Amino acid sequence: MGFIYIFTNESMPGLVKVGLTTRSPEERARELDSTGVPMPFRVAASWPVESDLKIMENKCHQLLKEFRLSNNREFFKIEVSEAISILDPHFLTSEQIALEKERIRKKREQQRHYEEQLKKQRIQEKERLSLERWQGEIESLKSNINLLDCRLESIKLTLSQPESLISLALYKFHEILSLLVVILMRLAPFAMALFGFISGEYIIQKLLFAGGFYFVSLFFFGFLGFICIALIGQIERLRCAIFGESYAQQQVTLGTLVCKLKEEHNKLNCLESKKTP
């Protein structure tokens, strides 16, 4: 904020001084009143300038350049009234400045209001998209839960059928038979070795009989055990082909489905808690 001024001096008739000041023109006139000037300067005219004070001063000097006495001096050989008539159209009046300030204020207020509305719209759009995404995820989880419930009920119904109970009995029988085969393969060689050791009369004979019986029985019962295991596997595959998925496998599937169902319910509760404000 500053002023462009026109000063006159009685000791310099026909000359005017055009310059700028960031203080009041009267203060600037008093500053120029020194022993080097016979008479004090008088403020003939002044115009307030909001910004670009130096640019406005140069513009005024350019408008009055044909009347300038020297390029490094701010004195012009021109009548005061003529200088005012040349410069005055390029300045705003106090009312015009006030109107311009009000216009700028309203424009800034409108811009601020527009930015606030735009920000609110962006937030609302973001919330809407988040809500739609949550709703989509919730619907997907509900659909998965319904499918898991149907699968769970189907397995429970299957397990309650007589065929599943028969399959369970066969499965348990195979487990017991497999256990007996393993025990036979492990214990029979030692039992035969003990029998051979008892059958001998001398210690060398006892050891030879025990070793012979052990290795022969190990080979024999091992071979027999492998045959039994292979037969058990074939019977199990045949049973699965007849009855479908085994009882144990259905139990495992049932447990897996229950865990999966709990996870889906937890996810659903978490999403619904986020959705609820």
Automatic annotation (TrEMBL):
Q: Which InterPro entries match?
A: Phage_T5_Orf172_DNA-bd
Q: Where are the transmembrane segments?
A: 176-199, 211-232
Do you know which Pfam families this protein is assigned to? T5orf172 (PF10544)
Q: Report the protein name in the record.
A: Bacteriophage T5 Orf172 DNA-binding domain-containing protein
Q: Which residues form the Bacteriophage T5 Orf172 DNA-binding domain?
A: 10-90
Domain of life (superkingdom) = Bacteria
Coiled-coil region(s) = 97-151
Question: Which SMART domains is this protein grouped with?
Answer: T5orf172
Q: Which UniProt keywords apply?
A: Coiled coil, Membrane, Transmembrane, Transmembrane helix
